[in-house]
Amino acid sequence: MHEISIVRRIIDMAEGEARQVGSSSIRLIRLKVGEFRGVAVEALEFGFAVLKKGTLADGARLEVELVQLRLDCHECGQARTGIGDLSFICPGCGGRMNLSTGRELELDYLEID
Ligand SMILES: [Zn+2]
């Protein structure tokens, strides 16, 4: 279950940041997760509830912001959003589309005491 390893890494990063500013308590962790990652938000939240115990994030809340997938065609400029019909072929010109957003997996914001 890769959500668990994601959560572990996020908590490590958050603890690192908190230690750098000499804090011992994290209040809020906000994540940006792209649709293309195929991450289950409930699994992230569950993993967080389990793994935060005994860390600096013990009392922290987790917020997950989902970033919609967006494909852009560099040939004709057409854009598509949403993961529904995931094809990298442009419906307008048949060219190849590039993934502009949707691959994010990052610590977006931290609130530290
Ligand atoms: Zn096109």
Q: Which oligomeric form is depicted?
A: single chain
Count of strand segments? 6
So, CATH architecture of one domain?
2-Layer Sandwich
Helix content: 25-40%
CATH T-level fold name of one domain: hypothetical protein PF0899 fold
Give, in order, the helices and strands. HEHEEEEE
Strand content: 25-35%
Mean pLDDT: 94
CATH class of one domain: Alpha Beta
Tell me the radius of gyration.
Answer: 17 Å
Biggest sheet strand order reads 2-1-6
Measure the end-to-end span.
Answer: 31 Å
Number of helices: 2
Helix/strand class: alpha+beta
Strand count, sense and barrel status of the largest sheet are:
3 strands, mixed
Q: Point out poorly predicted stretches.
A: none
Distinct small molecules: zinc ion
Could you explain how this protein is built, in words?
- With 113 residues, this protein is of the alpha+beta class.
- It has a domain at 2-68 and 102-112: hypothetical protein PF0899 fold (2-Layer Sandwich).
- 27% of the residues lie in helices and 32% in strands.
- It has helices at residues 2-20, 41-51; strands spanning 26-34, 61-67, 70-73, 79-81, 97-101, 105-112.
- The protein has a three-stranded mixed β-sheet with strand order 2-1-6.
- Strand 3 (70-73) and strand 4 (79-81) form a beta hairpin.
- Helix 1 (2-20) packs across helix 2.
- The protein is elongated and about 55 Å long.
- 21% of the residues are buried.
- The mean pLDDT is 94.
- Residues 73, 75-76, 78, 90, 92-93, 95 line the site of zinc ion.
